[in-house]
Amino acid sequence: MKTYKPIGLFFVACCSLLLPCCAQERKYSTWFADSEMARFPEAWQLDHGKRLFFGYAQGVGCCAMLKVWKHTGDRRYYDYVAQWADTVIYDDGNIHLYTPETYNIDFINSGKVLFDIYKQTGDEKYRKAMDILVKQMKNHPRTCDGGYWHKLIYQHQMWLDGLYMASPFLAQYGATFGQPEWIDEAVNQVKLCHLHTYDAQTGLYHHAWDESKRQRWANPETGHSPNFWGRSIGWWFMAMVDVLDFVPADHEGRAEIISYIQGLAEALPRYQRDGLWYQVVDCPEREGNYPEASVTTQCMYAYAKAVNKGYIDKKYRRVAMKAFDGLKNTLLKELPDGTLSLTRCCQVGGLGGNPYRDGSFEYYINEKIRDNDAKATGPFIMACIELGL
Known about the structure:
13 helices, Glycosyltransferase, two-stranded antiparallel ribbon, 8 strands
């Protein structure tokens, strides 16, 4: 049985040898980043990785580490990411174990890491790798009105997850390399996803939409998946907030995306319990449902950043702080070695496939749970930076 020590507000009296020594108050952002680096000494190991891989979850964790580097100036965090990038990107720009013919939108997410590495090193292999990812999106299969399929094997389907994976990357690529058509594309994808997944009754978003309406999980009239999965909404919320970093102030789609952010920011507190959001967001009292770490950290980040950027009213900072307090009181633990651990992270969630995932309430609540999943820990670190914690 694990034993945990209570977490102090911002002070650790005695640090583990695994972590840098401290003689003053420590911020949760660096404390947790150091904990991840102690748990996973190489970045490919983030998210419990078993092999070198250009995985989207490693991308989430590495983006968080780069933010810590920029926030603190501590080169350790950059070097942690750069070593992984150097290993996974070959000299010709090809990417280790990347298979473009699968048209898997998840592959695009880790491309976000390469902008900073390219800027710091000037090594053209990183620009070539980003170009390869953009080439995938040039040819990526789409719905009839232009929405990206989630994967080739998930035909005719847009998933909320995919908006986080591709749209911020494409917008940053367009802004960085003077190709504004990719900013337009990123904005258009957000608009299409809102059009096809928004639920006016709850103010939430369905996990996915099947244009063909043939999937067993799809509503035969709307094509919607049947439930509001927490992490998918978290991905969507973060995607909208992050994509705006690269959308010009005078872009015709900017105000529309901000209106989506404001609507979701207004809706989500109705479903928050003790600061936390649940695996299936709209029914926190339903038997079997549970408070889940990734939706909570992702929404905490999106709220905090949206407030800091002026997209939503400052009053919503309280919602982010409630999320932090809920995590600290319930899901965030200090282990005997001085590291922090984030518990109750859903390991994976999806629709279709084999064995078939039907999107039911029972499916979501019975997916595997684990500690320190990068889809939760990365957003936690980023959220703490935004909140100054």
